[in-house]
Amino acid sequence: MSFMGWEPLPEDEVTLAQILAENGYHTAAAIDTPFYIRGEMNYDRGYQTFFFHPGQEGSPTRVQQVGNHESRDIRDRWRLEKDHNAPQTFANAMNWLETHYKEDFFLYIDTWDPHEPWEAPPYYSELYWPGYDGEIIQPIYGHWQDEPGFSAEKVKKANATYCGEITMVDTWIGYFLRRVENMGLMDKTAIIFTSDHGFYFGEHGGKFGKMSFDKREGGGLYRFGDSDARWAHSPLYEELVRIPLVVYVPGVEPSVYDGMTSVVDVMPTVLDIAGVSSPGNVHGASLLPRMRDSSAAGREFTVSTIPFANPGDEVRSVDSIRRNLVNSQVTTITAGDWSLLYSMDEGMSELYNLANDPAQENNIISGNLGVAKEVHRYLLKFMRETGVSDHLLKPRQEFRL
Fold first, then answer.
1. What is the pLDDT of residue 68?
2. pTM above the 0.70 mark?
3. Is residue 38 situated within a structural domain?
4. Which residues form the signal peptide (predicted)?
């Protein structure tokens, strides 16, 4: 799936929800992420019950009135915390659970928050920015120094609103868990919490966002929605690729696993907990053995990547605009203490020793070329094992310092 990009789910792809539904589980999802269903993405496949709350980025927030004479924005009705997107999504999940908690169920909750715009009720942001005035700051997806009118102080303020929205989401996760507890489900329900990526707030020379847009000829950076926008060099540092993963399974003693895992391990873990076999084409591995024995061997390496594409290829971004890729994008391969940020472009790859340099401030690739090449071989192994086409594999077989 690492080479799909923002594309519809292939017709022959079998989802976790499908497998569990076929094995007697009532499958339900409560989401507010519009990209599951927008443009026939088909990511609702396998769910027997599917709740979608509109209003997040890229999702219509304006509701047409009778006759289409005028429209109103649903966000105008956000008067209370419970009206916001994440609370609405968790409320949908809790309401469904009230009438299905005695069944064998698989409930998937996906909230776009804490994605920008960071607009939680102001009292959450005030926890991190006393006297917060309600300003909503959008990330610029690049170095803040390249955008007129930006400052380090503004990035810090944005981070406070981000933390505020995280706290709101955390609060509603707590409400949901209390509901699960009150229903007597904690001793017979597994719970998995994770995310997709982190965010830059001024690290690595002033990055603010995730990927980086190219600079305009007249100054400033391209933005989402600009049809002529181009992605610039976008390395994936630890701030982006190191994400939380919390797994609760009744009867398994709490522990911390220090080895490497990947989000692709979640599907086989769920199936293992449910006593269902994983399909043969699944690349992940169940985490249950490592949960029961934190000293158990884990992954030899992990790969974190923007969807594979070559310069000149047409790619579709989250804004659904198709663009031709100008620069090759970066793939991060982590093996033990080593983190290689690999680029096909000469002179653009980076190597860090995470034990000695966890903030990734000292690129030591020039003095450790042998290590870099060894870690690079893991990328080629990964691409072959996941069936990446020769069109994408061949240009990456050569390591250019």
1. 38
2. yes
3. yes
4. none
